[in-house]
Amino acid sequence: MDCRPACAACCIAPSISTPIPGMPQGKPAGVPCVQLDEALRCRLFGHADRPAVCGSLRPVAEMCGDGRTHALHWLSQLEAATAPPPPECGAATAYHGAARATVPARLGQAG
After folding, report:
1. Whole-angstrom Cα distance, residue 27 to residue 33?
2. Is the separation of the CB atoms in 20 and 26 below 8 Å?
3. Segment holding 92, helix H or strand E
4. What is the DSSP letter of 45?
5. Staple 44 to which of 1, 50, 66, 81, CB 3.0 to 4.6 Å?
6. How far is CA 31 from the centre of its chain?
7. How much is the pTM?
8. Does residue 108 have a pLDDT over 50?
9. pLDDT exceeding 70 applies to what percent of the chain?
């Protein structure tokens, strides 16, 4: 299967955690890659600085379905299913509070 013209679902829906020229921190899910041109084609296709994850994602019928809408939905669902869980609320506060409570005790023992 070949990529459909003007689809770019795989350049929009998934997050990319590695640097991309123009996006040094990678790309969040749902954000179009800055390397998409006006025709929704990848400017890095075939270039060495294209992220490996981009080259590993190949069009298949299950993912691409009958059009761009299906592909965006399918890839968004895959992104959600494979995303790391969000940090627990208050976890950082509890940790920092515990750290603050032990610092004075350690300083008092050091002298």
Report:
1. 7
2. yes
3. helix 91-110
4. T
5. 50
6. 9
7. 0.73
8. no
9. 79
Contact predicate 9/69, CB 8 Å:
no
Listed range (15-19, 42-46, 92-96) with the worst mean pLDDT:
92-96
Backbone φ, ψ for residue 82 (5° rounding): -110, 0
Q: What is the sign of the dihedral through the CA atoms of 13, 32, 53 and 44? A: positive
- Angstrom distances, CA of residue 62 to CA of 4, 13, 75, 107, 109: 14, 15, 10, 61, 64
Decide: 13 and 30 in contact? Cβ < 8 Å.
Answer: yes
Cα separation, 59 vs 90, whole angstroms:
41
Task: Say how many C-beta atoms besides its own lie within 10 A of residue 78's C-beta.
Answer: 14
Q: Which residues contact 28 (CB under 8 A, 6 or more apart)?
A: 15
